[in-house]
């Protein structure tokens, strides 16, 4: 299990191959890559702020929870902060398991929790100015899918 | 006690971090105390339903006790991922 | 949208990077990689048979269905046949969308359908002999998740 | 009409493909006809619930009509992915 919070870009393909090579007994590897999207007004750049003292700890806790819920051979999370441009990968989640259902569910779960529980904030700068990206109600709602009765 | 701010909370208050002396019992007390001190705090804390709070880097809530807490963080809902 | 049914190995990381680079307006890319697992008796090799006249057509139909159900910027499927060894990637599904929920659901759907509706058959050879892998009831059951009323 | 076999169906019948003359109306009729012809077909078709059929490369079922069909394929449940 590894968590990387970094300013540097990463190569999603390299990360996937390295992660897959480390898995023992995995028949299924799921990756999610989040990419900076351009916006209607034309994105100049995106700035991601985070809370360094909390970030890795919060992500680790979410990964621990995923490993407790599903039979995973491995989990990895990479999340960038700092200045990014359209089409840059922002973050990546990787899960591996003997069977596909566990790998899919865990990656889906990790994404929902990272969206709303990891301390990152996005600010978009366009020709019209700079604005913090608002959290979506649907992202908060998505967490209820995972509540355990 | 250290108080840290992120994203637009940081921008409205105008600083990322400060160390304060307070006898506030709960997060809500601390918010009330800061808001009464200066307009920029009142502006940042106007709608606490739009805010999140972490105590010593753990997500918490506005009713939580501050007893023994070393770092309080205020920020908008996260938008990672 | 592209479908590749091939005997040659592929590099999952390269496939992911190339696919991601082709997406316009995607904020989310999901990849699934299926990998040959070793088995209790020790896998010597796996042989995948397929029905050439039907395979690409069947996969294409499943991809079309996914594109009709979810807002995707792209879909790709690669599936190998022939002789494979433990840890070799067997197949890969990639989906891209503006939002993560569509990309996850489409990849999950594609995997369920490819498992049970694309004409591939796996045969495992171990020191104990060769045996066709049996379909699992749970794979057939998984399809019911996607039925539309 | 071409008849093709895959995986253990192919192995039991002992060939991957054959061209046959038949007046069978449905897939089930064709299965009955082949099964009565030789033991190896009877063995392969013993439990049709464990088999799948495709007509001209489209999944179908054992009740389906063979009228106009050029290729019938018999195989076990797929195990791709």
From TrEMBL, chains A, C:
GO terms for biological process: Mo-molybdopterin cofactor biosynthetic process. It holds the Pfam family MoaE. InterPro entries: MoaE_sf, Mopterin_biosynth_MoaE. It catalyses: 2 [molybdopterin-synthase sulfur-carrier protein]-C-terminal-Gly-aminoethanethioate + cyclic pyranopterin phosphate + H2O = molybdopterin + 2 [molybdopterin-synthase sulfur-carrier protein]-C-terminal Gly-Gly + 2 H(+). It is an enzyme of class 2 (transferase). Keywords: Molybdenum cofactor biosynthesis. PANTHER family: MOLYBDOPTERIN SYNTHASE RELATED (PTHR23404). Heterotetramer of 2 MoaD subunits and 2 MoaE subunits. Also stable as homodimer. The enzyme changes between these two forms during catalysis. This is Molybdopterin synthase catalytic subunit.
UniProtKB/TrEMBL annotation, chains B, D:
Pfam families: ThiS. It comes from the Bacteria. NCBIfam families: moaD. This is Molybdopterin synthase subunit MoaD.
